[in-house]
Amino acid sequence: MRRNKYGIILPFLAPALILYSLFVIYPYAQAMYVAFTKWKGLRKSPRFVGLDNFEKMLGDDQFWNALSNNLIYLVFLPIITLGFALFMAFMISQKVRFSNFYRVTFFFPQVMSVVAIGILWSFVYHPTIGIFSSLLKAVGIENPPIWLGDPDTALWSIVAVTVWQSAGFFMVIFMAGMLSIPKSLYEAAALDGAGRGSTFFRITFPLLWENTRSSLVFITVIAMDMFGITFTMTQGGPDRSTDVLATLLYEHAFLHSRFGYATSIAMVYFVIVIVLTLLIFRVTRRETIEF
Fold first, then answer.
1. How far is CA 144 from CA 99, 237, 269, in A?
2. Which residue from 44, 62, 83, 155 has the fewest beta carbons nearer than 10 Å?
């Protein structure tokens, strides 16, 4: 019986497995090989150099600078984005005034492309025609910050844009979880005299744990990427203050034709994301609450 079952399943799985191997597994395997070579993309066969690319990476200040910027995003984006999204989802689920307006407003940036958002906010941050600079000048500040031109403010300006762009997505995830919570729990809490704060921390948040775990993985991937918004707004500048691993490997691959070294950066980036994802699932694992 078991043999007959596999004999029926395998013919149906074979086309999908062949396509997956051809377009996913094989490119990954080829990229792993390129990471151990020196290749400018023009030679027919890359020259194998072993671990030279990874040894070079250890002494590359640009690599460590880009990784440190990714780590800054990794620390602050989850706290700010998920905290704000969770707050908005809870307030909207409580049917506060203008809740439908808030729902549409905060989700709207999610339907825009990253390139469009980057260009839009580049104009918002513009030192002469930007809205922020004009508002600051209107209230008497003659020399407002050069938001994207100052190494001290450029990265945090991108953080603000990323929060604005992605909070709506996580708000929807949390709202979906909140809508599945039985109303009887909230009614019982209200009868006991619980306010919105205690209701949130004692009922809502514990029952959203699985949504929170998934959101942590998503925001981790976003924080370790940051290519689209960074490349559109600053291209890693000024003075590499907003450089991330994705923009650094793009520079080495497509501007300097160092495909071997760029692929080794991509491999390290891939391993970091996988390890962080597994760590998140490991640390946040707990017994699921059924309701």
1. 34, 19, 36
2. 44
